[in-house]
Input
Amino acid sequence: MISHPGLAPERTRKMILTALFSILCIIYVLPVFMVAMNSFKLNTYVKTDTFGWPRGESFAGFSNFVTGMTFGNYPFFKSAMYSFVITVLSSALILICTSMAAWYIARVDSLFCRAIYYLCVFSMVVPFQMVMFTLAKTADTVRLFGFWGPKLNTPWTIPVIYLGFGAGLAVFMFAGFVKSVPLAMEEAAAIDGCGPVRTFFQIVLPVLKPTLISVGILEIMWIWNDYLLPYLVLDRTMYMTMPIHIQYLKGSYGTVDLGATMALIFLSIIPVIVFYLICQKHIIKGVAAGAVKG
Output
């Protein structure tokens, strides 16, 4: 049997890439594994035997989870509820508003639309640290409807701020996908009597499903894990998200129960990991669709 001379180098290349990506996968998974492992250790052994397996006298069972969820006067499940509310409201607001804006920008060829598009793209390179102090002051003074309504420093109004920070990437991806959608579909809907709103929700939005899911996954992962924006904007005596709650796991003189901290970190990353594993196949599809240029 004669083998093709080009098969050996190709097989070697695939083996090298497999080994390389396997190493990268281990590097990325290792921190999550370490958090999960240390969440079942007593506090002393988390410090002295960080890389050891929890067994024997170092095994704490589920006591770290109980300690973390009952620590202090602020309920852990209340923090989880606020994180869930902020994540769902912010993601929904970003998806609806930015998809509509991207559709308008892609279909209306004007100087104004191009300026808005490039401003959204430019916003992706502006570091949050440049605007965080001004933003915190603005959230404490500006109200949702201008001069009346709640201020922007509550879990129900902070999605407006997240909309501003998440609009750049979302508009960029949606606009790229809309340019690849045939205009004839919208023209046919207009002939049948559909107005702009009905055309968007019944014709355009279903076609945007791959990018919609992809952007939604990215935004949900970002908002759920975000610590700095809620910390600066929300009133911490009334509202705490899960990252802020974990940061406040301190005893007297600044001592930290690392076992309980690891347990709550593990609980906080489980939902987003499960969500990502379920929806990961849509990310590549949506990113590739959004990269198409008209």
Summary: The chain has a mean pLDDT of 84. Residues 7-38 form the longest helix (32 residues). The domain at 74-290 is CATH 1.10.3720.10 (MetI-like fold). Residues 217 and 276 are 7 Å apart (CA to CA).
